[in-house]
Amino acid sequence: MTAPVRILVTGATGAVGGAVMRALEAAGHRPHGVSRRGPVGPRQHTWRAGRQEPPPALRRAWDVVVHCAADTRWNLPEEQAEQANVAPLRAALRLAEPRTHFIHLSSSYVTGLAGGIDSASPTAYRNSYEWSKAATERLVHAERDSADIVRFPVVMGARADGLLDRYSGFFWLPSSLCSGAVPAMVAEEKALLDIVSTDDVAAHVTRLVAGGPPTGRRLSILGRGDGAQPVTGVFETVRAALNSWRAEHGVPPLDRLPSMTPEQWNRFYLPFAEEHLDRAQLLRVTAFRAYQGYLSVTEPFDVTHRVPDTVQVLHRSIRRWAETHENLARRVPRAWR
Ligand SMILES: NC(=O)c1ccc[n+]([C@@H]2O[C@H](COP(=O)([O-])OP(=O)(O)OC[C@H]3O[C@@H](n4cnc5c(N)ncnc54)[C@H](OP(=O)(O)O)[C@@H]3O)[C@@H](O)[C@H]2O)c1
């Protein structure tokens, strides 16, 4: 009888880590998970990686470490982003032996504005999240002779029902549409928004585990590539999903917002807004600026593993968000003046 593979998944309570845990369990493994806040099931451990020493239960010989722990907020000051993303990786690397199959989860956006991960300058990236994730990839290259690095773009829920363990990042969009926090859809006309399902990432990781550690460092990039949905289509899918849920709950539909390019927004709308909006409105408008970079990517990602279509995944995930955030999904936006 072969010994069971000892697998540790960091960030096991997160959107991606939760799906990875379930996929590994479905493949017959008994993975251990860690998170800051701790147990949500069997074989789950509490550990603030990078801030505390690992508890004794984690100090054992792991065959596989899948590192999903991260803080995906874009707006952390650089020092905090480093502490949130690079320090936990450094701590996870210390739990791995040279023979351990180390699988590091990263982002397709890690190549930032310069198209690569080599620059350590924050100006080469859209935000401190990308900058710190690029630093994590460089750290994996520096510390490991063998490792898998898996990049993927925006993550939605399960293909069957849109289930996600945690809603963050992209879900500002349905929330903002329902609350009326954004007055317009700002995107380049030809922009694409690449999306994968948590199932795609979890299935890929499970396949990597089955195949064993690579010789050297191996990069996989998951996504739809040039088959990604245009951003305008994404907006419409989100609105259609919200409106189908709202119709079933007797809530008026959301109108289509006016569209404009980032240039039109920044040159014509913002200067006007700064003069006429109140402080609260201005804060919302300024916060919205942070997302523009992601709605202006016109070059498709070069993918190594093309995932099946994700339009339905997006639709189901947004409906699922509405079911789990009923108060937000029921809001009726007030018109901008
Ligand atoms: N979500 C996306 O759209 C997306 C897109 C591309 C790439 N990614 C990458 O996918 C990976 C997983 O992201 P996600 O979306 O699943 O994130 P998430 O939903 O925010 O979950 C983060 C997980 O990491 C844990 N964690 C964070 N800091 C930790 C620390 N210092 N020590 C231990 N656990 C820690 C959290 O634990 P608590 O439960 O205690 O908070 C949680 O389990 C990340 O590498 C991210 O960069 C995500």
Task: Report what the structure shows.
The protein has 337 residues and is of the alpha/beta class. It has two domains: 7-144, 3-Layer(aba) Sandwich (Rossmann fold), CATH 3.40.50; 171-190 and 228-301 and 308-329, no CATH class. It is 39% helix and 15% strand. It is built from ten helices and 14 strands. The chain has helices spanning 15-26, 78-94, 128-143, 172-179, 198-211, 231-248, 262-276, 279-292, 311-324, 326-329, and strands at 7-10, 32-35, 44-46, 64-67, 101-107, 147-152, 154-156, 185-186, 192-193, 195-197, 217-223, 229-230, 259-260, 305-306. The chain has an eight-stranded parallel beta sheet, with helices on both faces. A two-stranded parallel sheet has the order 7-10. A two-stranded parallel ribbon has the order 8-13. α2 (78-94) links the parallel β4 and β5 (101-107). Residues 10-17, 34-37, 47-50, 68-72, 88, 105, 107, 133, 152, 154-155, 166, 168-169 line the site of NADP nicotinamide-adenine-dinucleotide phosphate.
Biggest β-sheet: strands ordered side by side in the sheet: 3-2-1-4-5-6-11-14
Proportion in β-strands: 15-25%
Using DSSP, what is the number of strands? 14
Q: What do we call the CATH homologous superfamily of the largest domain?
A: NAD(P)-binding Rossmann-like Domain
Number of helical segments? 10
Inertia-based shape: globular
Overall mean pLDDT: 92
Radius of gyration: 21 Å
The N- and C-terminal alpha carbons lie at a distance of: 71 Å
Give helix % range: 25-40%
Low-pLDDT windows of residues: none
- What's the SSE pattern? EHEEEHEHEEHEEEHEEHEHHEHH
Could you say what the CATH topology of the largest domain is called? Rossmann fold
* Unique ligands: NADP nicotinamide-adenine-dinucleotide phosphate
State the name of the first-level CATH class of the largest domain: Alpha Beta
User: How many domains make up the coordinates?
Assistant: 2
How is the main sheet built?
8 strands, parallel
Q: What is the annotated CATH architecture of the largest domain?
A: 3-Layer(aba) Sandwich
* Estimated structural class: alpha/beta
